[in-house]
Write a structure and sequence with these properties.
- With about 170 residues, this protein is mainly alpha-helical.
- The protein has helices spanning about 5-20, 25-30, 60-70, 95-110, 115-130, 135-140, 145-155, 160; strands at about 35, 40-45, 50-55.
- The protein has a three-stranded antiparallel β-sheet.
- Strand 2 (about 40-45) and strand 3 form a beta hairpin.
- Helix 1 crosses helix 5 and helix 6 (about 135-140) crosses helix 7 (about 145-155).
- The radius of gyration is 17 Å and the shape is globular.
Length: about 170
């Protein structure tokens, strides 16, 4: 759904960054070149409460972030920026990212609710489903208190709780 043009390259990089990091939208729009440590497969995001955290990046995401760097407007203040003629090089806004997600959702024919925070929740749920624990997830998500992590991510659907080995 992202396409192969400059906007597609940028949008794909944003999607992968959201999936890898669970970053809040404010952290994504606030990224600068200096925040990106692609050789070390990580980035520094500043989010809620002006707190900073390092977030890991997969090889796939680094590859797509580098592809964005190759076509990104030179001299832009923020890492993710507009390529539209009327706002070329200007920072993307949270609203701009939400609109981009809606556009891609429609193009891909996806039903349901999709927003930047959906990717954060998807990361948290996948992390736990693949054996991660709440204490480490707290650090991954940048929560101050593990109770926040437990309240938002350690919630299982009935189907997820079914285990044939349990005896009642």
């Amino acid at each position: 759904a992202t396409g192969l043009d400059e906007a597609g390259v940028r949008d794909r990089a944003i999607l992968l960054f959201l999936l890898d990091t669970g970053a809040r939208v404010a952290g994504v729009v606030g990224l600068t070149l200096a925040n990106m440590q692609l050789d070390h497969k990580r980035a520094r995001v500043k989010e809620k409460g002006n707190k900073e955290r390092l977030v890991p990046l997969t090889d796939l995401t680094v590859m797509h972030l580098r592809a964005w760097l190759a076509v990104r407007p030179r001299g832009a203040d923020k890492f993710f920026c507009s390529i539209a003629p009327q706002s070329y090089g200007n920072a993307l806004t949270p609203t701009g990212i939400r609109l981009m997600l809606k556009r891609l959702q429609k193009r891909a024919g996806i039903d349901g609710r999709i927003n930047p925070h959906s990717f954060r929740h998807a990361l948290g749920r996948a992390y736990l489903a693949n054996g991660g624990n709440a204490a480490m997830l707290r650090r991954v998500m940048g929560h101050t208190n593990v109770s926040t992590t437990i309240n938002f991510y350690v919630q299982y659907e009935v189907d997820e709780m079914v285990d044939d080995t349990l005896v009642w």
